[in-house]
Amino acid sequence: MLFEESIDEVWSRIGLVLSRDVLERRYNARHGGSLSAQKAKEIVSHLQQGQQYFKSAQTAGILAGPLEQYYGVLALTRALILYLIPRAREATLTKGHGLGATLANDGKLENIRLTVANGTFYEFLRATGNAEEITAEMPGVTDGDIPFYFSQRFTVVRSLPGPSLGDRFQFIDLLSRIPDLREHFEEAFSIPAHCYRGRVSAFFNTITVTVERGMFELPAVDELAGLLQVDSSVQIDVKQPGSVEFSAPMQKIADGLAKLPIAIDRSLANYAVLEPFRSGWSLSILASYFAAAHALSMIVRYYPTRWAQLLSQERGDRLLPVLERLRGLVQTDFVRLALRELERTSGP
Known about the structure:
Blueprint: H1 7-17, H2 20-31, H3 37-59, H4 65-84, E1 97-102, E2 113-119, H5 120-128, E3 131-138, E4 141-143, E5 146-149, E6 152-159, E7 168-170, H6 171-175, H7 182-189, E8 195-203, E9 206-212, H8 221-228, E10 235-240, E11 243-249, H9 253-259, E12 262-267, E13 270-274, H10 285-302, H11 304-310, H12 319-343
Antiparallel strand pairs: 1-2, 2-7, 3-6, 4-5, 8-9, 8-13, 9-11, 10-11, 12-13
C-alpha cells in the first residue's frame, strides 16, 4: 500500500522519473503522445528542485524550515502540472501561488483566511482533478467449500467538487479536514474535527461508507448526514452505538460513491470520512497539504516573531503540536501522493 513505503523508497522511485527514457514511457502511457525534449527538461528540473528543497527543509532550523518545505511543495506541484497537462509549459504556467492569505492584526494564527486565486494552486486542482483514489474489498461468498463469488478488490478514482476562484476558508477549517491531523487537532483544540474514522465496504450490488466515533460523540444522524452532504437517496442505518452506515446501489461503483460521504483511503483497512466545506466543495488531501504548507509558510515569512513565540512553549501554544505534525506529514505524505500522480496511468 501507498503509506507502507519509507520516504527514502519514495524518493528513489521519483528518481526513476528523472531518467528521460522512463519519463517518456510514463508520459506516453498517460497521454498517448510524445514528450518533447524541452518539456522533459522542465519536468525534471522542477522535480530536482523540489527534492533539494525537501532535503534542505529536513535539516533547516525550525524558524526557517517550513518556508524551505513550502518551496519544495511548490516545485513538485509545478512538476505535476507540467506532467499532467500536455499543453502546459514552464513559460505558460500562471504566475503566483494561487492562494491569498490574510490575518487580522490581533487574530489567532489558526484563523488565517485563505482565498483561492489564479495561480499554481488553482492550476493544480484542475491538473489532478482534485481526485482521491479509493481501494476496497468485496468479500467472497461460499456455500460450504463451493465459492459463489471470489473476493475482489476494486480501486476507484473520485474527483471531488473543488472551490471556485474567490472562495475563502480558514486555516483551522482546513487543518480539521486533514485525516492524519485529526487526533492532534481534537486533542489540541478540544473540539471535533471535520473528519471521522471510517470504513468502506461492498457486498453484491451495494457499497457502504461507515462513519465511526472517535474522541467525540458523532452528531445526531440527520445532522451528520447534512454535514457530510450525502444524497437524499442514500440509505442510513445505525447498526451499533457510535457507528453510522451510509449505503447506495453500485451498478457502477463510481456512481454509488458519488452519492456517499467522501471517503479517503489511507490504507486498505484505514479510511477517513470528510465533511465538505460549507459551500459544498472539498479539497483532495494532496491539495490540502499544498494549502496548509502555504499558510504555514505565510506565518514564517510575515509573522516570524509570533512564530518564534509559538515555539517558546508559553500559554496559548495549542496550535504548535498540530503544526509540527503537519510539517511531518507534508515532508512524507505529500511526496508519496505526488509519486502516485506520477505513476498513475490514467486521469480521474
